[in-house]
């Protein structure tokens, strides 16, 4: 009930904004106080504040550790002093003490050659050689899960291929970002901005995010159905198809063969067909596995994952069928396709993953199962209707635009439901933020889920669209969602599960470096383009010459490139971490297997 | 009956059916409706060369940075005289071939200018070719890539009659004995770009833009050089600056300077007005100037001429709307006879 009150409360807060946004006369005099822009600023501040809190908690626990070490040092110094005391001096002191307490210390209780016993089993790990003197050590997770070897291999190979695409795809993205500053970097047709941009977007979409999602999905499907995957062979076939589709698609795009510039469907249909077949195979495999589950209930993750596969298959078919795509028919489908590609495929699937990996990483159940079900149905209902908000004020029918704007506001329901569910699941485990390297990823993903989606809804309002549409703000928004939400959740899930599959944990300093570089990089990227995009829109509204908006963007493009470099570097670190987790995996597994069962915690 | 928690078949079927139903409602039905749009009666189909140019436009993915939609809001007025209509896309948005669908020319990013009306705004072949070869040779602050692979570098001796030779300033191309000529693809692309013009509506009606910035509409009128009427500096920046540059110095070897120009500074503005209205092609060392009579009103031509005559060290008397009107009438009479 509480949740519903909360949702209604949010709605009443936002409603005046929606009504205002529908007005036919928009004035830019007080643009800064318009609900959409104000809302966005508030949302960004939320992320910033939470990031600062995470940072402070880390600093705090680090300071605590230093303090403790200091205390230990003083104590040791005191011990040394005691040991170094001269006999006669000791005698005098002891005499004094004896006189006072009739009690005498031997002086070697805390040192000496005596063997150490931990009678109460309090000490977990003894080391004379700490990993790193400058960082707080995170708690070790219990390693090893009982998982069939073929499944482990599938998960690792899907994620491994995904990481190759992530590194290559973001390298290309970074290169594209630098072209804004140095347009003459190269003069090769196949490296030109127009051809390379879709290579970047499609590679990180279909290569990185999709492969990582499906790989992580295989584990969830098998685990929550308490059974084995229907067919490992088909999983491998889908793996080959998806990778071939990304390879071929990228080559075609660089050769100047694209499907007509429609965003995210630049791959020509024979190439996308490979991807679609892989989706059908994956769906069939997942569906059969769920059908043979050994428990009666279908866990909520599987709702999201199965549905996202079904929806995306439908989406690919509608997006590529030719019968209604001449004239602006294509534009209607484009709005529908590009938004659903993000909403029904990446968002839905990833939410399904979070519903499993978040509670399992915290070793507790999800806060509310029903809220998950509510989020599921509303996700389908609202997300499907909002594609046309990419074409506000365009020649598309006004009713279609209005529908899109109204349902964009409706997106608050699934978003608030999801965010509440994740945050309430984390509640009570906040101490994990400083103790684990998985939870910060989940927390940032959740925050961006709320902030990015809500900001997107704000952006659909007519006024904010007026200022932001066509500017670099869109690029900031798409990175906030595809990177801030999807990539962060995927990283959280990967760091949560892979060490358990291989029995090897990555160096914690490097996971921390990955987290902070990705986060700070994204923030620099996002804020610079948001601020620059806003100024650009205002410059257009004022009727200034177009080239002025190009000139004013230059410093923001530099900051974007700096943020992008940090993001790209973090991916290199991530790739190394992955390598570290999976290398020599077989040997680790053998040594784990020889351990007695009771030592393996699941 | 519909226990989604336990019946996987029902769950998946329900998700599928509802999604397909919503998709039909919100995507397929409106798409069919939009596809049924007919062209405006006076709208011209693409010629086969323009059609080829459109394919180059798609191959190079120009839509990644250039939109082709004038939205129904005041700020987009600078890109066209009226908001875009579904009919405008009738000829350009047809399926390309069996492999590729109808091109998404509307775009979603305006990293570069909107191209809906580029054919009217920038009708000069030479400008387009130079701009494609190296955008910074005509727009110094541009960040657009150079499309040098659409051009060929040949020996001066090998240049034939049919070749279109570019007059690139030395700082962008300096190889003695060599010339840059446009490939067929570049010529096709320019033909396509020049075809991008808004068709006038048959009954002369102009759909209204949603007004937004009252202060601009009323407040900014006064900054023009003439005190009233259109703002000459702004019009110059929108219409002339691409070739003659913001400093009025033009591009050596391609576009003549206006600063210190005899025509511009002539006491009698007749020749200057004639050139603006009719275009100019008397000097072989410079590119052809296209006529602007159809695009600019008398008041606008006067404002531009006055701005040119009073900027960059030029000092000649202002031009009035009446001057322009007189010359326009004279030209029209001459043509009719």
Condensed summary:
The complex is a heterodimer of chains A (602) and B (337). Chain A is mostly helical and 602 residues long.
Structure description:
Chain B: This is Cbb3-type cytochrome c oxidase subunit II. Chain B: The chain crosses the membrane at residues 12-32. Chain B: It holds the Pfam family Cytochrome_CBB3. Chain B: Keywords: Heme, Iron, Membrane, Metal-binding, Transmembrane, Transmembrane helix. The complex is a heterodimer of chains A (602) and B (337). Chain A is an all-alpha fold. Chain A has a domain at 147-278. Helices cover 72% and strands 0% of the residues of chain A. Chain A contains 19 helices and no strands. Chain A has helices at residues 2-21, 35-84, 87-101, 149-179, 193-225, 232-254, 269-291, 300-320, 329-362, 369-383, 398-410, 412-426, 432-435, 439-460, 462-468, 473-502, 508-541, 546-582, 585-593. In chain A, helix 4 (149-179) packs antiparallel against helix 5, helix 9 (329-362) runs parallel beside helix 12 and helix 17 runs antiparallel to helix 18 (546-582). The longest helix of chain B is centred in the first third of the chain and has 28 residues, at 8-35. By secondary structure, chain B is an all-alpha fold. Chain B has twelve helices and two strands; from the N terminus they run H-H-H-H-E-E-H-H-H-H-H-H-H-H. Mean pLDDT of chain B is 85; it is low at 214-227. Chain B folds into two domains: 48-195, Cytochrome Bc1 Complex, Chain D, domain 2 (Orthogonal Bundle); 225-336, Orthogonal Bundle (Cytochrome Bc1 Complex, Chain D, domain 2), CATH 1.10.760.10. Chain B has helices at residues 8-35, 48-59, 118-121, 125-133, 184-195, 214-219, 232-239, 241-244, 262-265, 270-278, 298-309, 321-336; strands at residues 151-155, 178-182. In chain B, 42% of the residues are buried. In chain B, helix 2 packs across helix 5, helix 4 (125-133) packs across helix 5 (184-195) and helix 7 crosses helix 11. The interface between A and B is large, with 95 and 90 residues.
